[in-house]
Amino acid sequence: MVDLVGKRALVCGGTSGIGAATAEALRDRGAAVTILARSASGDAALACDLEDIDVLTITIKKEIDANGAFEILVNNSAGPPAGPLLEAAPADFEKAMHRHLHASHTLVQLLLPGMRAAGYGRIINIISTSVKEPIPGLGVSNTVRGAMAAWAKTLAKELPPGITINSILPGFTATQRLEELKQTLATQRGVSPAEVEAAWLATVPEGRLAQPSELGAVIAFLASPAAGFVRGVALPVDGGRLASI
Questions:
Q1: What class has domain 8-173+211-237?
Q2: Handedness of CA 90, 15, 239, 181 (dihedral sign)
Q3: Maximum separation of any 2 CA atoms in the chain, in Å
Q4: Strands, DSSP E only, in the chain?
Q5: In what order do the strands lie in the sheet with 121-126?
Q6: Disulfide engineering: 31 pairs with which of 4, 16, 17, 42, CB 3.0-4.6 Å?
Q7: Whole-angstrom distance, CA of residue 102 vs CA of residue 11
Q8: Cβ–Cβ contacts within 10 Å for residue 20, how many?
Q9: Do residues 215 and 223 make contact, with C-beta atoms less than 8 angstroms apart?
Q10: What confidence tens digit (pLDDT) does each residue in 55-69 have?
C-alpha cells in the first residue's frame, strides 16, 4: 500500500469524476485532503472558480495561513465544450486557458514555498490523451491540453530536487463528463449514444471504459515517495488506446 500519512493534498475538481476518485485514493493512503471546486461543501473543501485567478490566490493564501502548507497538488478541471476548432472564438481559448493553464500555474507558485520547506512536493496534472493524439471534435480542449503538457514538461526542468511534476492522460473513463460528451457527439453525428461508445471501445484493447478509481490509484502512486524518480512524464492510462509510443 502506498503510504501518504503526514502529507497534505490539494485536489482541484475533487467533487466528482476522476477528481473525486483521486481525493478518495489519497485519503485511503493516509493523506489529509482538501478539495477545491466551484461548488464545494464540508470541512475540508474550498469553493472557488478556477477562472478567477485573483480570488483563487486569496483563497489559497488564506487556507495555507490557517491550516499549513500542501505537499501534494492535483490540477484538474472540466474540459472546454466540444466543437470543431474552426468554429472556436478567441474568447473560448481565453476562458479555457484561465481555467487550466493560468490556474495551475498560480497554484504551483502558491504551493511551492511550502513544498520547498518540506523538502517534498508532488504536482500531478489530470489532462488528456489528446496531448499525444488530438481527439476529433474537441478543438479547444486539444489546444489547451497540449499547452498544459508543454508547461508541465518545462517545469520538470525548473523545479528543485524532491519536487516533481507529472501528467496523467486519461483514456475513455466512466464519468459524467464522458457521458455528456457521448450525448453531444451522438446528436452531432445522428447516431445513438450506444453507437458512439461502441466506436470508442473498438479502439481500446482492454475493451471497456476505465473506472475513475483506476486513475485515482495511479495518481496516488505518483504522489508517493515511491515515485520520487518519476519526473516530467505524460502517462497515458487509456487501456492501450493510443497508437503513439
A1: alpha beta
A2: negative
A3: 55
A4: 8-12, 32-37, 45-47, 72-75, 121-126, 163-170, 234-237
A5: 45-47, 32-37, 8-12, 72-75, 121-126, 163-170, 234-237
A6: 4
A7: 16
A8: 20
A9: no
A10: 999 999 999 999 999
